[in-house]
Structure formats: C-alpha cells, structure tokens
Amino acid sequence: MKKYDVCNIDNLGRILIPIKLRKEFQLKAGDQLELFVDKDSIILKKYIPSCIFCSSQENVHEIKGRYICEDCIKEISGTSV
Ligand SMILES: [Zn+2]
C-alpha cells in the first residue's frame, strides 16, 4: 500500500478525495464507496453493485433494495409459479 496524500476530516466526519484520485477511479457525486478495515487502516473501494443471483455487474438494476441483472430479471419473468 502506498501513501497518496494527507487529508483533513471536517467536523461532520467528511473527507475530501482529491480530484486527481476521483478522476483516476472515475468517482462522481452520488457514487457509493465500500469501507474496509484492515488492522490500523481504513480502505475505500468503489462500490459496484452485483446481481444477487449470478453476481454479474452488467446491467444491474435496484429493485426493493436488492440488485438484480437484466438476464436474471428475464429468467424470473419467464418463470411460472
Ligand atoms: Zn443475474
């Protein structure tokens, strides 16, 4: 792990991710980040939702708080109960 920069935490607990890093990781306002903890480190990772059925990250839609891909939507839509 390499050191990138030093940043301050504001009084609401927010940090500013430098513009260069946001561009490099294609982060924009509204994107979600996953937080990981490793010993004495906090790691931020871009959150890419994946389908709850097949784990695909392509054409994923949010339905009732869960993520599902178009292929699985089609498969389920064609299933009769
Ligand atoms: Zn799927």
Task: State the helical fraction.
Answer: 10-25%
What's the helix-strand series?
HEEEEH
How large is the share of residues in beta strands? 15-25%
What characterizes the major β-sheet? Answer: 2 strands, antiparallel
Order of adjacent strands in the largest pleated sheet = 1-2
- Ends: how far apart? 50 Å
Account of the protein in words:
The chain has 81 residues and is of the alpha+beta class. The protein folds into 2 domains: 47 residues, Pemi-like Protein 1, Chain: D, CATH 2.10.260.10; 32 residues, no CATH class. 17% of the residues lie in helices and 25% in strands. The chain has 2 helices and 4 strands; from the N terminus they run αββββα. The strands form 2 sheets. It has a two-stranded antiparallel ribbon. A hairpin with a 2-residue loop joins β1 and β2. The longest helix is centred in the last third of the chain and has 8 residues. It is elongated. It starts with 18 loop residues before the first helix and ends with a helix. The site of zinc ion has 7 residues, from α2.
Sequence-ordered SSE layout with sheet pairings:
Layout: H1 19-24, E1 33-38, E2 41-46, E3 60-63, E4 66-69, H2 70-77
Antiparallel strand pairs: 1-2, 3-4
Bound molecules: zinc ion (ZN).
